[in-house]
């Protein structure tokens, strides 16, 4: 069971969605505006929030930002009665789980909410594991001061970077396990100990700010920072650790753990990109469906005009060209309207766009396979 919040100023929409989701035994709450939604968030720990983009006195995107300030783990699904490429793109960039157009199909919304709730549960579980590991590390770091040899075997063999640097994060490495040496592409421990932690940071201002935070709070937790290996290859690291000081309060060193999360971030970025393209494709399909009738009307009138023109009439070729172009546009919209699986290709500026022809071939190939199976 998941805790679900529905935010929509239309009572019928709230009632309908609530009924759909309660079929799966979710605890479902509703709010008719952003203020009521935020009040409910103070009372309940929601897993998934479904919000209309158009709300009284504000909009769903502003509510999304306020939700994100409170929690980065809540899965948000935006709903709109007037889907556009702009709102879909903005929503995906803001990190929503999905983007739906009204009217929402019963089975579709139930399936999407179930997936979102599953993702939230996994995030909660992973956060719990990570916090547990970080607490263990803090305890073991303190124990290392008393009996460093006792835990050396663990530190040497664990597949996570563990290191010690002098005077916070701007000092030199003074100790590191093999995973740290390998992560930064050093040949051996001596090479790593010859450099400062700041030397392998892409942004000196960022490491300076992070060092100040560590000195102020005496610890940092799961801070992402752009780093680089000895050969200059960049990667993203997740850094946690504690400042160790003597009895007088003077900083002795920083004990930290670091994990290369580059691949994980890339997977997440690819997922967001796929969702964005899928949303655009669905909106394009809806638009093509609406254009179909106007194309038929234009085509009919042009064909009627051609029937009343002779081949030597000066208007014959221009009208014939109009007819050909209308047919081309109709074919394009027909392709878009039938595509459910998309292929992309590179475009100017390093971005990817949907390849209509390849997508149509993929769709046709899939249909042929299904026919053969049946």
Attribute tags:
374 residues; alpha/beta; Rossmann fold; Beta-Lactamase; 3 domains; five-stranded parallel beta sheet; five-stranded antiparallel beta sheet; 14 strands
Walk me through what this model shows.
Helix 4 (85-93) runs antiparallel to helix 9, helix 9 packs antiparallel against helix 10 (316-338) and helix 10 crosses helix 11. The mean pLDDT is 82. This protein is 55% helix and 21% strand. The strands form four sheets. Strands 2-1-3-6-7 form a five-stranded parallel sheet, with helices on both faces. It is elongated, with a radius of gyration of 29 Å. It has three domains: 3-122, Rossmann fold (3-Layer(aba) Sandwich), CATH 3.40.50.2300; 158-260, 2-Layer Sandwich (Beta-Lactamase), CATH 3.30.450.20; 270-373, no CATH class. The protein is α/β, with parallel strands linked by helices and 374 residues long. The longest helix is centred in the middle third of the chain and has 52 residues, at 106-157. The chain has eleven helices and 14 strands. The protein has helices spanning 11-22, 34-43, 60-70, 85-93, 106-157, 178-183, 189-193, 204-217, 262-307, 316-338, 356-373; strands at 3-7, 27-31, 48-52, 54-55, 58-59, 75-80, 98-101, 161-166, 173-176, 219-228, 234-245, 251-260, 344-346, 352-354. Strand 1 (3-7), helix 1 (11-22) and strand 2 (27-31) form a beta-alpha-beta unit.
């Amino acid at each position: 069971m998941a805790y679900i919040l529905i935010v929509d100023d239309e009572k019928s929409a709230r009632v309908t969605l609530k009924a759909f989701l309660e079929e799966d035994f979710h605890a479902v709450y509703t709010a008719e505006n952003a203020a009521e939604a935020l009040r409910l968030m103070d009372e309940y720990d929601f897993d998934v929030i479904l919000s209309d983009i158009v709300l009284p006195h504000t909009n769903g995107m502003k509510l999304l930002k306020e939700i994100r300030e409170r929690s980065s783990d809540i899965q948000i699904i935006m709903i709109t009665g007037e889907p556009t490429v702009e709102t879909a793109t903005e929503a995906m960039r803001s990190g929503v789980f999905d983007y739906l157009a009204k009217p929402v199909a019963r089975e579709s919304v139930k399936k999407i909410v179930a997936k979102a709730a599953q993702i939230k549960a996994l995030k909660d579980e992973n956060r719990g594991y990570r916090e547990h590991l970080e607490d263990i590390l803090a305890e073991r770091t303190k124990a290392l001061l008393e009996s460093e040899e006792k835990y050396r075997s663990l530190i040497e063999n664990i597949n996570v970077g563990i290191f010690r640097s002098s005077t916070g994060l701007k000092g030199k490495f003074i100790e590191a396990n093999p995973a740290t040496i390998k992560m930064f592409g050093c040949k051996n421990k001596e090479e790593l100990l010859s450099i400062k932690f700041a030397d392998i940071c892409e942004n000196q201002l960022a490491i300076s700010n992070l060092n100040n935070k560590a000195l102020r709070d005496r610890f940092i937790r799961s801070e992402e920072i752009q780093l680089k290996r000895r050969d200059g290859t960049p990667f993203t690291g997740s850094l946690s650790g504690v400042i160790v000081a003597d009895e007088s309060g003077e900083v002795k060193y920083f004990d930290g753990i670091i994990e290369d999360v580059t691949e994980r971030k890339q997977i997440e970025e690819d997922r967001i990109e796929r969702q964005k393209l899928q949303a655009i494709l669905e909106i394009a399909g809806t638009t093509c469906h609406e254009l179909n009738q106007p194309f038929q009307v234009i085509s009919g009138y042009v064909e009627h005009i051609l029937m009343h023109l002779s081949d030597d009439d000066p208007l014959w070729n221009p009208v014939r060209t109009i007819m050909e172009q209308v047919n081309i546009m109709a074919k394009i919209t027909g392709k878009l309207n039938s595509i459910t699986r998309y292929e992309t290709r590179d475009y100017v500026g390093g971005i990817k766009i949907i390849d209509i022809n390849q997508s149509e071939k993929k769709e046709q190939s899939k249909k042929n396979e299904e026919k053969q199976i049946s």
